[in-house]
Amino acid sequence: MILVTGGAGYIGSHVCIALLDAGLDVVAVDNLSNSNKASLDRVQSICGRSLVFRLADIRDEETICEILRAFGVTAVIHLAGLKAVGDSNVRPMTYYENNVLGTMRLVSAMKRANVKTLVFSSSATVYGIPRYLPLDEKHPLDPTNPYGRTKLVIEEMLKDLCRSNDGWRICNLRYFNPVGAHESGLVGEDPLGVPSNLLPFVAQVAIGRREKLRIWGNDYDTPDGTGIRDFIHVIDLASGHLSALRQLRQPGLLTVNLGTGNGYSVLDVVRTFEAASGRSIPYEIGERRAGDVAVCYADPTFAKDALGWTSTRSLQQMCEDHWRWQLQNPNGYHGSKLPTVRERSRHLRRHG
Ligand code: NAD
Ligand code: UD1
Known about the structure:
Blueprint: E1 2-5, H1 10-21, E2 26-30, H2 38-47, E3 52-55, H3 61-70, E4 75-78, H4 85-90, H5 92-112, E5 117-123, H6 146-163, E6 169-175, E7 177-179, H7 198-207, E8 213-216, E9 228-229, E10 231-233, H8 234-247, E11 252-258, E12 264-265, H9 266-277, E13 283-286, H10 301-307, H11 315-328, H12 341-351
Parallel strand pairs: 1-2, 1-4, 2-3, 4-5, 5-6, 6-11, 7-10, 8-13
Antiparallel strand pairs: 9-12
The structure holds nicotinamide-adenine-dinucleotide and uridine-diphosphate-N-acetylglucosamine (UD1).
C-alpha cells in the first residue's frame, strides 16, 4: 500500500492513476486546502479500481502514524504542500509551517511506523537563476523565493536523514513545468482564482473565461523574445514517480530532474495551444514579471540513467490534453459530479 500525500491535487491525482494502473494499492491523504475530492472520485472511475481517501493534514503526526499502520503502508509519495511563489513572498511563515514542519511531522510518523521509503516533490525552482544550461542535478542551488527555499530546506533535511544510516530510501524529484491532463479529460489542473501559470491561463482564455493573455515580456535574449521553459506532461511526470519508487531498493538518496530537456517559448505555447484547440488566443505584451528567468530547461540524462525514465509526450499532446480537460470542465471541479455513463463509456471506447 502506497500513501500519497496531497493525493487530491493536480499532480497527486495523476500519480494515483499511475499507481492504480500499475496494480498498486493507494491511500490518499489530503486536507483539501487546494483541491476537491471529486478528483479522486474521477481517478477511481478512470482506473476502475478504488483507493482509500483520508481527509487529514500532514502536520497531524498521530493521524498520519495511525494511517500508516492501519493500512500497512510500505512507501510514501509526498506531494502535499503550498506552491504559489507570489503568495510565499507575502506569507513566508505559512509556507515554512506547511511545507517544512509538515514534512518533519510526516517523517516522524514514518519513523514511528517503520516506513522508510519516500519520494518527495521538489522543484526546479531550487536552482534559482540558471548559471548554465541545461540544468543538471549538480547545478548550484540558490532559490529566489520563500517557496523555493522551503523545498531546498526539505531536500537538505532528507539528505541528513539518509546520512544518519537509519535505512532511509529517499528520492527527491525536481519537477520542471508540469502541464496537461489525463487523456480522458476527467482529471486535470483546477487552479483557484486567477491562474499565475501559463498553461491554465491560456486554457481559460481559449474557453472564454478570460479576455486575453498578458505575456510577461518579449525582450528576453531568446529567439522570439519571450521566456523559454521545459514543459512536461503531467502523465510523464506521474510515471517518473513509479520509476523512482521501483528504484528505491537500497538505502540512500537519489535526486533527479523530471523534465523533457526541450525548451519552448511562451509564443510557441500560444501557437501550439491555438492549433490544439482551434481557438485563437488574443494576447498583449506586458512588462517582465519580477523573479522570472529568460530560459530554464532540464538535463534529463540522469533521470534516464538512474531511473530508466524519459518523457515521451510532445508539446502538442500537452496542449491537446490540457484543452480536452478545460473543454469538458469549463469551471474545473466546481459543482462537479462523477462522470456520466456517456463520458465513462467514451473514455473506455478510446482507451480500453
Ligand atoms: P496542488 O495544490 O494541486 O496539490 C497539493 C495538494 O496538497 C493539494 O491537494 C492540497 O490540498 C494538499 N495539501 C497542502 N497542504 C497540505 C497539508 N498540510 N496536509 C495535507 N494536504 C495538504 O499542487 P500540485 O501542482 O499538484 O503540486 C504537488 C507538489 O508538487 C507540491 O508539493 C508542489 O510544491 C510540487 N511542485 C509543483 C509544481 C507545479 O508546477 N505544479 C512544480 C514543482 C513542484
Ligand atoms: C513558476 C514559478 C516556479 C514554479 C513553476 C511551476 C515564478 C517566478 N516561478 O515558474 O517557482 O516551480 O511556476 O509551478 O512564479 N507567463 C506569461 N503570462 C502569464 C503566465 C506566465 O507570459 O500569464 C510566462 C512567464 O513569464 C514564463 C512562462 O510563461 O516565461 C512560464 O510561466 P509559469 O507557468 O508561471 O512558470 P515559471 O515561471 O517557469
